[in-house]
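Final report, closing paragraph on structural work. Over the funding period we assembled a curated collection of sequence-structure pairs, and we close with a single example.
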Amino acid sequence: MRGWGAAATGALFAVLIAFVAAPASAASPVAAGPFANWAAIVVAGDFHAHSGDTTEAFDNARRDVAVSLVKRMGFSAQNLRTFSMRPRLYRDKPAAADIRGIYRGLVDVADKAKDGCLIYFTSHGAPNGVVLGDNIVPPGVMSRMVDSACPDRPAIVVISACFSGVFVPALAGDQRMILTAARPDRTSFGCGESDKYPYFDDCFLSSAPQARDFLDLGAAVQACVARKEKETGATPPSEPQLWVGGGLKPVLPLYGFPPG
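Its predicted structure, as stored:
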């Protein structure tokens, strides 16, 4: 991955200056912030609880993370796609979650929204990747998908799944942020039949209103998961992983979430 380019930095500062300079009476909607020209996809990769019965936890997270991205973080709804294993069940009309459709959806929005990419997967996981229906998406495939659809731009990848720390080495890059629900050798929690969200997704959603930016949010999610696991006696601790590339880390705080 290349370092932070002058054009991307200039575009970001132009957005920030325009936002600050706008008079209160002409205030722009939330989507006019730094993420307005970012592409985003949110994927629920399974609908089974750890018992094998059905759960709504992953699709609840998919739906509400997408809402939070738009309403709290300033992403444009026009540049966001969601995917589900059971798309016909849901009123928000996600697309069918298969790897080719997900890749095409990411390419489609990334071709129009060129400032950056956010990829969010919530599902079960295995030591060799994240579950997508009857298949496993390994870290190498995920990395190639992001490289191909989002070249030469910042990318934030969030993987909510057991063993999801396995994605960090493959996805690491100068302009990448990776946030995972667990270490490479640990499970995560909260995918039972009665769970509203997996623990990690619950913490992502509950921490977002107070977070300043994605760096702040990542640290808050780590702390929240640790507290939740301690309160519920979930062991061993999942230890969510946060990794940020050297080119992205200094500028990521400039991508602040709108006040609210």
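Residues 1-31 have pLDDT under 50 and may be disordered. The helical segments are 6-21, 57-71, 99-112, 139-149, 167-171, 199-207, 214-232. We thank the funder for supporting this effort.
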